[in-house]
């Protein structure tokens, strides 16, 4: 059996002529499997340290967070989109820990983003070494979350920048609530995962008091819900041209936006829609806490690897739905999912590995192959923080 596993990994990895570190990590994942569970606080601290390491080592050296660490090529350039929504996470833990260097790191990220904001309020897509420079709705919406957090804590100039960004998103939004602004980094067509952009507008509305931002966000979320199938699945949810089996990452983006829409509006129709999608994802959860990286319209797996980002995002949504509904199935599922992702972490060894979260598990899966990615780190921190905050207030999985 061991020889068979080695041959399988070797054949699969050899297609990319991967160097030793990538091949060794793929073999480690597939043969040794998961580590022991380090628990929430140790995972949070390790992931925060990794994000700061990614900021220090970004190939573009601009104050942003490197998109990823590659087992093949090393550190990448900074990624504006994900740096944007990493900021609220770093600031939250700066507050909790009363930690000046975390505030400084978050402010450095935010000041860099202000320096690259376009005159119309939008932000470029992709990472800083990408050849194409164009305003992208999705990336702009994620950065809006960081602007809202910075405006709340620091005020100007982040408040004015947040308002300009929100106005641009409203200007390019279609009357039905969808965004169909050209995106050179995604397939053309409708994208329900832009409810995660709508969430940024909801945050901007809370911070500024401008109701029009919230109305625009809810318009998009209600449009997305109108595209939902009866079993909670979404067809217009893929990143590429194939919409038959979207990533759990984009399904969870869509779900989070709807959950946030309910949190903002208390609209029972949004809660109902969120529950339908959450229950579909729940049906695909394995006993050990993993979700397949891609799911078809029957919530069945189409790949064997796990998208760790999507798993952490889904855990967050399940925690939130537990808070809204008190249905213990969501709490149990979220804890199992968190434990699975925590057990993929390296907590010893070189600094570029400690606390980094892989795109796929095993690492040679198709999503961000052979990479530790910054947004997976952010979502695991958020998910573990939620779990830690709920300790002692809720029943344990063993009692459900």
TrEMBL record:
Source species of the chain: Prosthecobacter dejongeii
Name recorded for this polypeptide: Uncharacterized protein YyaL (SSP411 family)
A biological-process GO annotation: carbohydrate metabolic process
Alphabetical list of InterPro entries matching this protein: 6-hairpin_glycosidase_sf
Gene3D superfamilies (UniProt xref): 1.50.10.20
SUPFAM superfamilies, per database record: Six-hairpin glycosidases
Lineage of source species: Bacteria, Pseudomonadati, Verrucomicrobiota, Verrucomicrobiia, Verrucomicrobiales
